[in-house]
Specification:
The protein has 312 residues and is an alpha+beta fold. It folds into 2 domains: 3-30, no CATH class; 78-310, no CATH class. Helices cover 23% and strands 27% of the residues. It has 7 helices and 10 strands. It has helices at residues 3-12, 21-32, 49-55, 78-90, 179-186, 194-205, 212-222; strands spanning 100-111, 116-127, 134-140, 154-158, 229-235, 241-249, 252-258, 265-272, 285-297, 308-310. The protein has a 10-stranded mixed sheet. Helix 4 packs antiparallel against helix 7 (212-222) and helix 5 (179-186) crosses helix 6. The longest helix has 13 residues, at 78-90. It is globular and about 45 Å long.
């Protein structure tokens, strides 16, 4: 990789609202001045230990208080965040084909016409091999006003998948566990440019359960999509803060949020980046989700009387 491509790659991972003009100028000046002289490497010192030792005077003994271990430094770029998230995902347990993946999610949406927010809870039991009926339970936090169209409360029994293509199944068990193969598959879905298609398809898959290897490959594939940047602080629908990777398209920044310490996937958030009559003011929230709990179970609950049906 030559120097120009390296600089372009580094700049692509700087948040959009950061002013890096001065940093680029200083970098260019140092580059033109030639290589810097090497300085002798010295060991790192724990701050505060020396000061504590100097201030403590005793005849018999000197007690040195140890500082708690510093938390690990946050990842510096998109690739580091998604690589750690992939490592975390790859260590998750693998369900048996005859089992179900349970997910408890929360979504926060804005009703565009009324300006109100509604919060819904979605519980799902997804068949791993697609051969058994699944179950979805949905409950909204508000009642619709006249003319508002909100998802109705209730339960749906999900039909077995049959010949449904792997990318359209609720459980992504047959997708390739290779980032390059996944990128080629994602590019064949949707509209727009290649990067836009890949990102939109990836964010569509992000909330669906998948084998650990496929989940890890999806995270690593997202790191290779052009235009993906780092958002140092984001908040999911459950109010949890985390680090996010994001991409902006048509005035909306779509964020995928991870726990800062463990890099466990938390949820998503959509934020307006360009004010408009349709979307609202810049910085306003359009949508947020949170994956509250997930588990591998052997069966689904008994559907309620009058439960509906839906396709795989």
């Amino acid at each position: 990789m030559d120097e120009l491509r390296l600089v372009e790659r580094l700049r692509a991972e700087v948040p959009e609202d950061s002013d890096v003009t001065g940093a680029e100028r200083r970098w260019r000046d140092r580059a033109l001045a030639g290589p810097p002289r090497r300085r002798a490497r010295r060991p790192l010192l724990l701050t505060g230990v020396a000061a504590a030792a100097c201030g403590a005077v005793a005849v018999t003994a000197v007690a040195v208080a140890r500082r708690p271990a510093e938390p690990p430094a946050p990842p510096a770029n998109v690739a580091a965040v998604l690589d750690r998230a992939a490592d975390r995902a790859a260590a998750e347990p693998v369900p048996r084909p005859d089992q179900f993946v349970y997910q408890d999610t929360v979504e926060l949406r804005r009703v565009m016409d009324g300006g109100r927010w509604y919060r819904d809870r979605n519980q799902s039991w997804v068949s791993v091999n697609g051969a058994k009926p699944g179950l979805i339970r949905l409950k909204n936090s508000i009642r619709p006003r006249p003319g508002e169209h909100l998802p109705p409360d209730g339960e749906d029994v999900v039909a077995p998948c049959g010949q449904v293509p792997p990318i359209d199944r609720p459980y992504l068990g047959d997708l390739p566990a290779d980032p390059d193969a996944l990128l080629r598959l994602l590019a064949r879905v949707g509209d727009g440019g290649r990067a836009e298609r890949q990102w939109e398809a990836a964010t569509d898959l992000i909330d669906r359960p998948a084998p650990p290897g496929v989940r890890a490959a999806l995270f690593r594939a997202m790191a290779r999509i052009p235009g993906v940047r780092l958002a140092s602080d984001s908040v999911d629908a459950a109010g949890r803060h985390g680090v996010a990777v994001a991409r902006t398209e048509d005035g909306v920044r779509e964020e995928i949020i991870f726990d800062t310490a463990t890099h466990r996937y938390l949820g998503t958030r959509d934020v307006v980046t360009r004010s408009s009559r349709q979307l609202g003011e810049r910085g306003s929230l359009l949508f947020a989700s949170a994956l509250v709990r997930t588990a591998i179970v052997d069966e689904t609950p008994e559907p309620a009387p009058g439960a509906g049906t839906s396709n795989c």
